[in-house]
Amino acid sequence: MSYFDAASAAPLHPVARQALSAALDDGWADPGRLYREGRRARMLLDAAREAAAEAVGCRADELVFTSSGARAVQTGIAGVLAARRRVGRHLIVSAVEHSSVLRSAEVHEGDGGTVTRVGVDRTGAVDAQAYAGALRPDTALAVLQSANHEVGTVQPVVEVAEVCRGAGVPLLVDAAQSVGWGPVEGGWSVLTGSARKWGGPTGVGLLVVRKGVRFAAREKEEFGGLPAIVAAAASLRAVRAEADREAVRLRELTERIRVRVPALVPDVEVVGDPVRRLPGIVTFSCLYVDGEALLHGLDQEGFSVSSGSSCTSDTLTPSHVLKAMGVLSEGNVRVSLPLGATEEDVERFLAVLPGVVAGVREKLGAPVAPVTLVRDDVLVVDALGRRCPIPVIELAKVIGDVPVGGTVRVLSDDEAARLDIPAWCEMRGQEYVGEEPADHGSAYVVRRVS
Amino acid sequence: MSYFDAASAAPLHPVARQALSAALDDGWADPGRLYREGRRARMLLDAAREAAAEAVGCRADELVFTSSGARAVQTGIAGVLAARRRVGRHLIVSAVEHSSVLRSAEVHEGDGGTVTRVGVDRTGAVDAQAYAGALRPDTALAVLQSANHEVGTVQPVVEVAEVCRGAGVPLLVDAAQSVGWGPVEGGWSVLTGSARKWGGPTGVGLLVVRKGVRFAAREKEEFGGLPAIVAAAASLRAVRAEADREAVRLRELTERIRVRVPALVPDVEVVGDPVRRLPGIVTFSCLYVDGEALLHGLDQEGFSVSSGSSCTSDTLTPSHVLKAMGVLSEGNVRVSLPLGATEEDVERFLAVLPGVVAGVREKLGAPVAPVTLVRDDVLVVDALGRRCPIPVIELAKVIGDVPVGGTVRVLSDDEAARLDIPAWCEMRGQEYVGEEPADHGSAYVVRRVS
């Protein structure tokens, strides 16, 4: 098996495992107690905090451990919003943040606060000027990830931090994807991380609040297990020691995928910034492919990857990141290489991918009930009740029958069509005219340009 | 070393350690993913949930894991309060709940809700009729522990659940101290537990919400590490397998302490219900002893215990449990035996305790600046600025000088005196007249009866 989903959860680093095992003997007691076992636990906790703080680049008393990265985000956002309530209740986030950030934003709205969601360009990056434009006198907090978890694009944290600092607004950086690679530069105020992203155990997050930042903690430091914290800190140090060399190696491997997938597989869009990106993540989308079938096919070939396609998630809506970028979501694959991923595995992935994609396309391209008709002189593709990627497949089939300059209407009630039909037009050089309400679902109008 | 503080955190059970180690290999991936590693993690999670549910006596789909016992309490209380907001915002708790429950109650009050705190008798037990009396038409939730964490007293959960059920009010039972011993009987609605109390790893709590109970979850299931969950479930099963036999054995050992400590050490009060109590916990308080010095002395002799005395906590206030019971808090010691505690260790504890207590008393009884004077014909003990247990020590020194029927005033600004002077009177058969405001602190008036 080749596990290529390190951005979800990295396999436990060997150092984490050793540290965990050792800490189980000394770290089970309550570190708040005065007796021997408690003092020993307290020493372990303090040492882990020192080590993590050094890696993050902060003071030990600015860092607390939490029970997960999501909890760090939640506590961090809530803590600043509560402390700065008198300033106002306006929160700025980017549209491509992790779901834990967006969830906190929704909760804030539910409690009567207001939220501005800053959009991104087609690479997934925000613009510092967009943050500047979003700042208001009542802005309590701005949030920005250090790098995107789905497409790997690195965000302009230094620039955004400067803009926020100029306005006296604290910036919280969700550094979950980048803590293992190095400290976050720039004048951020609050920072969050998650141990399982760098090869530490699950159940450990970290929350850094710079001295001088107003922060209202609703509860004492709360963390999962102390042995897990010790393992998290030890593995962070180990990962950092090899980070520079490993970054060069993984960047070369993901670059291979970026360059060769479009040559190997027809109708593919590689997404995310080609240069300003994390070393280990590469994401692409394949037209006319169902994401779930693709993941299943890759799993059978021994590759574990994830997908932002709608059909692979519980919610049946495509990834909010791909949506915000305005890129294709169908047949989406995120490859995120763990430390130590081998060239052989990547080559084998490139070798099997074309066959897996072709297999899925063949199955989906098989004759389906006729769905096109001509109504009032306009060609109509009736894809109602059909799930992604059928609407786009049927559109591609009929576009040749549309006279140049003429239009075709695609009827669809699949949420993914709203994203994928415009993305298909962009890829194919056709004109996306717009969406119109229909009796059921929507009608997506496309004009044939060439 | 003899670790006698299992009620804070039990040492990791050997089965937990084995299970944790095995689960590190198979349980690091995201159980929500579709590929092999994710499916394997999901299977481990489901199996752990099944095992824990069987031990608790509920359906697997009624149980979720949380990142700690405190988090289970917090989520459980908030979830019912939110779901039943239309019924009302009244919450009932007992005065001797764990601090996590009392903290949730304070948060609820801060958010505009109302809270009734039901008192306890001198053994620490609540009365079901007191809960009946506290119920109101706008009561959203009642909370009661299965057994008290400081004195071991078992609460009448079955009776209180019946009273609540009659009024249509859900009862949340904080079963942290008893889950390892057996299922909680009675018609409770919500139940919480903490793995580190039964010998599982830290960082795992459980929250059970019975089908049909209205509950608003603000977030998805959130837990620490999956390996820790697997270890928690495995150790719960292992602990339960030996629970009946171990309960008999530990009960005999704590009974020895209950009976022999008052014979070995003068001026001791053993607190908590002598019969309806947890097998492994016994708590006593020693007059004229400073809790911190006592713990330090016992630690030097190799015993790790905890204390509800004011001088041993950060807050400098005595344990809210001892306060609610109206018993002595000074020189307080809680012995909570872990599974497997040996007779030899207990005998050694009984052998060293008298010397340790005597040593502390000797140090504190050493000449101090004269603090008694006669003012307006009344004997006044000026203990202002002096910390527990000095006020009580000075009171005991002068009571012989007070004529029978006469009174003595003790001036003190130590919060513990408010609890300990009445408790001393109760123990010594003297009359506690009451507290009066003084220029500094308070004057506690005691009448000599015999």
TrEMBL record, chains A, B:
Keywords: Iron, Iron-sulfur, Metal-binding, Pyridoxal phosphate, Transferase. Its cofactor is pyridoxal 5'-phosphate. CDD domains: SirA_YedF_YeeD (cd00291). Pfam families: Aminotran_5, TusA. The keyword Ribosomal protein does not apply. Residues 381-405 form the UPF0033 domain. It comes from the Bacteria. Signal peptide: none annotated. The keyword Iron applies. InterPro entries: Aminotrans_V_dom (IPR000192), Cysteine_dSase (IPR016454), PyrdxlP-dep_Trfase (IPR015424), PyrdxlP-dep_Trfase_major (IPR015421), PyrdxlP-dep_Trfase_small (IPR015422), TusA-like (IPR001455), TusA-like_sf (IPR036868). It catalyses: (sulfur carrier)-H + L-cysteine = (sulfur carrier)-SH + L-alanine. Gene3D superfamilies: Aspartate Aminotransferase, domain 1 (3.90.1150.10), TusA-like domain (3.30.110.40), Type I PLP-dependent aspartate aminotransferase-like (Major domain) (3.40.640.10). Belongs to the class-V pyridoxal-phosphate-dependent aminotransferase family. NifS/IscS subfamily. This is Cysteine desulfurase/sulfurtransferase TusA family protein. It comes from Streptomyces vulcanius.
